[in-house]
Specification:
- The chain has 279 residues and is mainly β.
- It is built from three helices and 14 strands.
- It has a 14-stranded antiparallel barrel with strand order 1-2-3-4-5-6-7-8-9-10-11-12-13-14.
- β6 and β7 (158-165) form a beta hairpin.
- It is globular and about 55 Å long.
Length: 279
């Protein structure tokens, strides 16, 4: 690689670290992306990434793929795969996620289970394996971590959710003091009227200021969803739509950061069986 290539790579690496620390928890799914990345109360196939307690309400075997072109830079792309399999009082989930490019990348895999503890209360847990790759002679490094989540359906129109990623701040490398960031999220979802839902969420790690998130989803037709959202620290706007074709769910979204620009996201889910009625 020439001097120019190294400068470009370093610039991309700095942008990546400005937006996310190594090993940060990332919200996955076109629906959540359009709703200001609110996801802690949602119960769909992407719960395997966002709050494993939501798996308890998934009723069919399904598979989904997700892609994000962060700030329209190919080298900062995020790709993810999710599989859910109902079992007992809940469902298992398997995840795969890849972020980055040849000079720097993160590969994350995980297995989760979410189950209903009562008619209104569910819990979930996930074990993750994260592998970091940095070029130019650095040794690849792998660590295990976990996630836990809770959901409570306070009524037909109100849901509460809590999720903690990396509750134990695992050290990323024996050569540094950097650890996987512990991230806590709490929020509620409110069905205002039939076909109109809103989500509000607070996100906090152990170092940074809290991030406030809000999203609203409108369903003007049986198979069409229109969504928008906002989040703080830094200020970002989101928007998108979803389409349902039988057992196929297609979601397209984009976020807009005032400095770094647009980040389009797309996800597709196919359910092999009767669709579950989630939120």
């Amino acid at each position: 690689m020439g001097t120019k290539g190294r400068i470009i790579s370093c610039f991309i690496f700095l942008i990546s670290n400005y937006a996310y620390a190594a090993g940060d928890h990332m919200i996955i799914g076109g629906r959540a992306a359009a709703l200001g990345t609110t996801s802690v109360t949602q119960s769909d196939e992407w719960s395997v990434f966002n709050n494993q307690a939501g798996l308890a309400w998934c009723k069919s075997f399904s598979a989904g793929i997700y892609f994000e072109d962060r700030y329209l830079l190919k080298d900062l792309s995020l790709k993810a795969l999710a599989i859910t399999l109902p079992a007992g009082r809940g469902a298992f989930g398997v995840t795969f996620r890849h972020f980055g490019f040849s000079m720097y990348s993160e590969m994350n895999t995980g297995i989760a289970y979410g189950m209903r503890l009562t008619k209104s209360f569910s819990a979930g847990v996930q074990v993750d394996y994260l592998r970091l790759h940095i070029a130019d002679g650095f040794k690849d490094n792998g660590v295990f971590s976990c996630e836990i989540g809770l959901q409570f359906r306070a009524g037909e129109h109100l849901w509460l959710g809590l999720h903690v990623a990396n509750p134990v701040p695992v050290k990323l490398s024996s050569l540094t003091q950097e650890r996987l960031p512990t991230l806590m999220r709490f929020g509620f979802g409110w069905r205002i009227v039939e076909g109109l839902n809103s989500d509000v969420e607070v996100e906090k790690d152990l170092v940074s200021k809290p991030v406030l998130k809000a999203g609203i989803e409108y369903r003007p037709a049986k198979s069409l969803f229109i969504r928008m959202g906002v989040l703080t620290n830094p200020a970002t706007f989101t928007f998108g739509f979803g389409l349902e074709f039988g057992n196929l769910q297609f979601d397209l979204a984009s976020s807009y950061h005032f400095i770094l620009g647009y980040s389009p996201q797309v996800s597709v889910i196919y359910s092999f069986g009767k669709k579950r009625k989630g939120n």
